[in-house]
Amino acid sequence: MPQDNAPTVGIDDLAVYVPGLYLPLEGEFARRRGIDPGKLIKGIGIERMAVPDAHEDAATMAAMSLLLLMRRSRLQPEQIGKIYVGTESSADEAKAMGTYVIGMLEQVYGQGSFQECGTVEMKAACIATTLALECQSYWLAGEDEDKVGVVIASDVAKYPLASPGEYTQGAGSVSLLLKKNPRLLALEQVYGHFTRDENDFFRPMGCTTAVVNGKHSNQCYLDAVTGAFDSFSARAARKGIIVPATGECVTDYLDHILFHIPYPRMVEYASAAVFRHDWKSCPRSRRVEEEIGPEPGEGDDKDAAALPAAEADYARRFARSPQFLEAFAAKVRDTATLSRQIGNIYTGSIYLGLASLLELDRLQAGQRLGFGAYGSGCSALFFSGRVEPQAEDLPRLGLVERLEERKAITLADYEMLHEGKMEKSLIEPRQEFVLAGIDSQGYRHYKFVE
User: Are strands 80-86 and 118-122 parallel, antiparallel or unpaired?
Assistant: First the structure.
């Protein structure tokens, strides 16, 4: 635990950039793909999918979210000690995206204004930004020059046209400002990890779209997040941060729980797995058992071959139990609000959950937030933070209004953009960074358009 009078470290503020285009998933898309709109809106939980314009990529979006953050927080380049970027949409196999971002920002703030800022790009599927946050929090705790850090998530989630994963695409960037004595969230510096080698999701070298083994990926997510939660719980107890009393559970000490959001319905599956696992050691499990019956394999005569089906049936019944539905509504449901209108943004999806809570005025001083991050391949990290008193004074991000101002596009335009065949932007760039061109060596050139 922090020593008395020692400064805390955490998230002081954040900014979100989302492209100005979106594809409605019900209507033309659902009809042409032969998908029941109810599967998309209710079953998956996505209504609109953010789509980058012809002049946008992950680097321009990263630069835009950082520019929004700097303007919102009145931040100057010389104050920033490090910029870490988490992405799986890298613009280059070697050059760090942060260098492109710095080059773009220097077009606004002046040549060389970021030259004393360190930058690195992290890749670990959708957990990369969270690992960057963990690393930077330790640097910041020992930083003695009053510098601040920025962690940027920026991604374009992309799958082949008409593939099973197509409707879980999205695009956007989130920039997090890390400071000592933050206004928003003080990290408790307890991190629980889980890692194993899996093929649930990957993107081979040279490929522009990912390979997804859907059901296997969902199970890897649940296994990893539950494992990271166990690791976090044990470490939190050893440090005296969360020590449940008799009859209590770790989740009783978490006011909101944020999970990685590949699609909004997944946070329901993840929270059901974590609550079910956590409650097994609490009296609450007996109340659940009275409502839906015992856990599969406990006191029954099912053979091993029948257990997977029994387990799947029990998981469905647990997710409909009054005990779970009450906990989900109170602690998790609101975190997916923005993702329903944006889609999956890979490394930043979990922090769209934080932005959702901020926009909905759900954050109150003293609340403890739990974060369950997941990255395919597979890794998970669970950590916590406390909401600071100044959080209630932070201005809202205005995201709900900004999302309503976006332009809906046709399926034909979306497919042209997806395949890189759109020669002219659908919205003329103004006051933003654009990909100006790629030269004969493959180097990407960016500029700020007034």
Answer: parallel
- Dig out the tokens for 315 from the structure: 């998981």
188 and 386 in contact (C-beta within 8 Å)? yes
Give the Cα separation of 378 and 430 in Å (integer): 40
93, amino acid identity: E
Residue 35's contacts (CB-CB under 8 Å, 6 or more residues apart) are 29, 167
Contacts of 301 by beta carbon, 8 Å cutoff, 6+ apart: none
Please check whether residue 16 is in contact with residue 172, taking contact to mean a CB–CB distance below 8 angstroms.
yes
Are the CB atoms for 124 and 162 separated by under 8 Å? Answer: no
- Token look-up 């006011």 returns 255
Nearest Cα residue to 338 out of 381, 417, 384, 398: 398
pLDDT of 128 strictly over 80: yes
Does the pLDDT at position 106 exceed 70? yes
- Report pLDDT digits (tens) over 291-333: 898 888 755 555 677 888 888 899 999 999 999 999 999 999 9
pTM: 0.95
Q: Please say if the pLDDT value at position 17 is more than 80.
A: yes
Which three-class secondary structure string do you get for the chain? CCCCCCCCEEEEEEEEECCCEEEEHHHHHHHHHCCCHHHHHHHHCCCEEEECCCCCCHHHHHHHHHHHHHHHHCCCHHHEEEEEEECCCCCCCCCCHHHHHHHHHHHHHCCCCCCCCEEEEECECECHHHHHHHHHHHHHHHCCCCCEEEEEEEEEECCCCCCCCHHHCEEEEEEEEEEECCCCEEEEEEEEEEECCCCCEECCCCCCCCEECHHHHHHHHHHHHHHHHHHHHHHHHHCCCCCCCCCCCHHHHCCEEEECCCCHHHHHHHHHHHHHHHHCCCCHHHHHHHHHCCCCCCCCCCCHHHHHHHHHHHHHHHHCCHHHHHHHHHHCHHHHCCHHHHCCCHHHHHHHHHHHHHHCCCCCCCCEEEEEEEECCCEEEEEEEEECHHHHHCCCCCHHHHHHCCEECCHHHHHHHHCCCCCCCCCCCCCEEEEEEECCCCCEEEEEEC
Q: Which residues neighbour 270 within 8 Å (Cβ) at sequence distance 6 or greater?
A: 221, 222, 225, 259, 260, 372, 374
Rounded Cα–Cα distance for residues 380 and 128 (Å): 10
